[in-house]
Specification:
By secondary structure, this protein is mainly alpha-helical. The protein contains 2 helices and no strands. It has one domain.
Length: 68
Protein backbone atom coordinates (compact mmCIF):
# COMPACT_ATOMS: atom_id res chain seq x y z
CA UNK A 1 0.00 0.00 0.00
CA UNK A 2 2.80 2.39 0.84
CA UNK A 3 4.28 1.82 -2.60
CA UNK A 4 1.07 3.08 -4.19
CA UNK A 5 1.10 6.16 -1.99
CA UNK A 6 4.69 6.88 -2.99
CA UNK A 7 3.80 6.34 -6.63
CA UNK A 8 0.87 8.76 -6.29
CA UNK A 9 3.19 11.42 -4.89
CA UNK A 10 5.73 10.77 -7.65
CA UNK A 11 3.10 11.08 -10.38
CA UNK A 12 0.92 13.73 -8.74
CA UNK A 13 3.26 16.70 -8.86
CA UNK A 14 4.25 16.36 -12.53
CA UNK A 15 0.65 15.60 -13.48
CA UNK A 16 -0.47 18.74 -11.67
CA UNK A 17 2.12 20.74 -13.60
CA UNK A 18 1.05 19.26 -16.93
CA UNK A 19 -2.62 20.03 -16.27
CA UNK A 20 -1.75 23.53 -15.04
CA UNK A 21 0.29 24.16 -18.15
CA UNK A 22 -2.43 22.91 -20.48
CA UNK A 23 -5.34 24.63 -18.73
CA UNK A 24 -5.05 26.69 -15.56
CA UNK A 25 -4.21 26.46 -11.88
CA UNK A 26 -7.90 26.20 -10.93
CA UNK A 27 -8.57 23.40 -13.41
CA UNK A 28 -5.52 21.52 -12.12
CA UNK A 29 -6.88 21.71 -8.57
CA UNK A 30 -10.28 20.47 -9.73
CA UNK A 31 -8.57 17.48 -11.31
CA UNK A 32 -6.63 16.79 -8.13
CA UNK A 33 -9.82 16.94 -6.05
CA UNK A 34 -11.48 14.55 -8.50
CA UNK A 35 -8.53 12.15 -8.29
CA UNK A 36 -8.65 12.21 -4.49
CA UNK A 37 -12.41 11.58 -4.51
CA UNK A 38 -12.03 8.66 -6.93
CA UNK A 39 -9.23 7.21 -4.82
CA UNK A 40 -11.34 7.51 -1.68
CA UNK A 41 -14.31 5.80 -3.35
CA UNK A 42 -12.08 2.94 -4.50
CA UNK A 43 -10.62 2.65 -0.99
CA UNK A 44 -14.09 2.43 0.58
CA UNK A 45 -15.14 -0.19 -1.98
CA UNK A 46 -12.07 -2.32 -1.24
CA UNK A 47 -12.60 -2.08 2.52
CA UNK A 48 -16.21 -3.24 2.10
CA UNK A 49 -15.05 -6.19 -0.01
CA UNK A 50 -12.42 -7.15 2.59
CA UNK A 51 -14.99 -6.99 5.39
CA UNK A 52 -17.32 -9.30 3.41
CA UNK A 53 -14.49 -11.73 2.82
CA UNK A 54 -13.57 -11.69 6.52
CA UNK A 55 -17.17 -12.43 7.56
CA UNK A 56 -17.35 -15.33 5.09
CA UNK A 57 -14.00 -16.70 6.27
CA UNK A 58 -15.00 -16.46 9.95
CA UNK A 59 -18.31 -18.21 9.22
CA UNK A 60 -16.49 -21.01 7.37
CA UNK A 61 -14.02 -21.44 10.23
CA UNK A 62 -16.85 -21.56 12.76
CA UNK A 63 -18.66 -24.16 10.67
CA UNK A 64 -15.51 -26.32 10.48
CA UNK A 65 -15.00 -26.06 14.25
CA UNK A 66 -18.63 -26.94 14.98
CA UNK A 67 -18.57 -29.90 12.56
CA UNK A 68 -15.68 -31.54 14.46
Amino acid sequence: MLGYVGLAYAIGAPLFGIIKGAASFTVAWYFMIAFVAIGFIILVFVVIQIKRYQKKYIAEQAAKTTAK
